[in-house]
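Example (one chain per record):
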Amino acid sequence: MIADREPKAAGHIVTIDVVERYRRKGVGKALMEAVEAWAARGGLRLIYLEAAESNASAQAFYEARGYEKLETIENYYADGEAAWVMVKRLRR
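Predicted structure:
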């Protein structure tokens, strides 16, 4: 998991990667909970990430955590694929 703080009280999840044999065992959920707690402790109002347009399972994972699709960015990835920007507003 790599995340950073950006101006205007926003957090950005740059990447979250779980080794395949540990997927669907709660590791991703634990990482997301940790980064969201970090963001909330830091007084951030929202946190966002990008998910590949073709990665429906990632989108579903984030939506189940309260992230909403905001907009797409065309040609976001090196192969030309678009990405969804997904945002979650945090309680303060």
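Caption: Helices lie at 27-41, 56-64.
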